[in-house]
Amino acid sequence: MVLASGGQDGAICLWDVLTGSRVSHVYGHRGDVTSLVCTTSCVISSGLDDLICIWDRSTGIKLYSIQQEVGCGASLGVISESLLVTGGQGCVSFWDLNFGDLLQTVYLGQSSEGQGVRQLLVLDNAAIVCDFGSELSLVYVPSVLEKLD
């Protein structure tokens, strides 16, 4: 049982929940870590540097990173062991966690400056609820899930 934490210095720490001891301490971002999500095999971090880093959960080694558009790297969600969703400027994007490949981008509407998806929530039925300007959007993309099966 591992817990992940991120800091303003770009550090990501993995902690053993049972003992409270630090298992791993790595630096992956230039500046604040803004989001962390975990699967059973990896930890995914995003930072103010618009970089998303995928880390091996057991070793703390960075597997790869994804450079996002400016201001797009703050919102993350995990749909399955191999599917990541990120918020962007007027869109949400779906990524294959095994290879870091972009699978699909869903546009939410006309994007004007400052209308990035700041928060998103993955629901049990693989639907995504996210903010878009002053609205909430619901996105369900079964075609992405079917391709990964």
UniProtKB/TrEMBL annotation:
<dbReference type="InterPro" id="IPR036322">
    <property type="entry name" value="WD40_repeat_dom_sf"/>
</dbReference>
<dbReference type="InterPro" id="IPR015943">
    <property type="entry name" value="WD40/YVTN_repeat-like_dom_sf"/>
</dbReference>
<keyword id="KW-0256">Endoplasmic reticulum</keyword>
<keyword id="KW-0472">Membrane</keyword>
<dbReference type="GO" id="GO:0000139">
    <property type="term" value="C:Golgi membrane"/>
</dbReference>
<dbReference type="GO" id="GO:0005789">
    <property type="term" value="C:endoplasmic reticulum membrane"/>
</dbReference>
<keyword id="KW-0812">Transmembrane</keyword>
<keyword id="KW-0325">Glycoprotein</keyword>
<dbReference type="Pfam" id="PF24017">
    <property type="entry name" value="Beta-prop_SCAP"/>
</dbReference>
<keyword id="KW-0677">Repeat</keyword>
<protein>
    <recommendedName>
        <fullName>SCAP beta-propeller domain-containing protein</fullName>
    </recommendedName>
</protein>
<dbReference type="GO" id="GO:0032933">
    <property type="term" value="P:SREBP signaling pathway"/>
</dbReference>
<keyword id="KW-0853">WD repeat</keyword>
<feature type="repeat" description="WD">
    <location>
        <begin position="1"/>
        <end position="25"/>
    </location>
</feature>
<dbReference type="InterPro" id="IPR001680">
    <property type="entry name" value="WD40_rpt"/>
</dbReference>
<dbReference type="InterPro" id="IPR019775">
    <property type="entry name" value="WD40_repeat_CS"/>
</dbReference>
<dbReference type="InterPro" id="IPR030225">
    <property type="entry name" value="SCAP"/>
</dbReference>
<keyword id="KW-1133">Transmembrane helix</keyword>
<feature type="domain" description="SCAP beta-propeller">
    <location>
        <begin position="1"/>
        <end position="140"/>
    </location>
</feature>
<dbReference type="InterPro" id="IPR057042">
    <property type="entry name" value="Beta-prop_SCAP"/>
</dbReference>
<dbReference type="GO" id="GO:0032934">
    <property type="term" value="F:sterol binding"/>
</dbReference>
